[in-house]
Design brief:
Elements: E1 2-5, E2 13-14, E3 26-33, H1 38-45, H2 50-57, H3 62-83, E4 92-94, E5 100-102, E6 111-118, E7 121-128, E8 132-138, H4 145-152, H5 155-163, H6 169-186, E9 198-199, E10 209-210, E11 220-225, E12 231-238, E13 243-248
Parallel strand pairs: 1-11, 2-13, 3-13
Antiparallel strand pairs: 3-7, 4-5, 6-7, 8-12, 9-10, 11-12
Helix pairs in contact: 1-3, 2-3, 5-6
Amino acid sequence: MIAANLKPQTDAWCTPPANPSIAPGEAHVWRIDLEFPDADIDRKFKLLSADERDRANRFIFKKDRNRYIAARSALRRTLGRYLQADPAELKFTYASHGKPSLHSACNPQDLRFNLSHSGGIALIALAVATEVGIDVERIRENFSCLEIAREFFTAAEYEHICATDPALRNEVFFSYWTHKEAYIKAIGEGLSFPLNQFEVSLQAGVRVKSLNSGVGVADYSLHSIAPCTGYVGALAVAGDRASILMWRG
């Protein structure tokens, strides 16, 4: 089952220590700005592996390419700070649905992580020997949230969104979306896991429930993350509780 702890933490972003470390029972979240001058992007590009560079070069639009490079290089730099390792030398492996992890040869701490980016913001979640999932979404105003919610959310979630003040409806929709995404990213299933077969709540203390006897839910806690104005996010951490530290990257 998934416990919910969904109170936004709007003023919790702190300056990180030079050499951060994660204590047992902690999860760390980093907020990264993805907007950089071209000269900085060129330097960040050099940190990436060959496959990351190939993917970057497949983006059609320069803005999307630059944000991908900024996010991946920030992930490498952040992991390097915890591992006291050269960011360019870190090697990743990928699960069947694409969830990345560090190769064991360069991960003596058993550091687990997850990355999400939307618009000009990225979030990175980290924990030790504990699976995490993170999602961030820019709140889009001209967006058919009711159509999407009706197709992909549960009846109760859809009804809650319908009953919300129209001025806040998209924010509530994306809050639901990030909580669901964070969970399925944490368990490594991606969007192959049916979003309308498990239910989350935006109220603290309400546990997720499966709506299908054939679809189980794992034991994760969910935490609402408020990156900045115009964005919503969520963190999923294996286990009942986690102490969340939030850093400005």
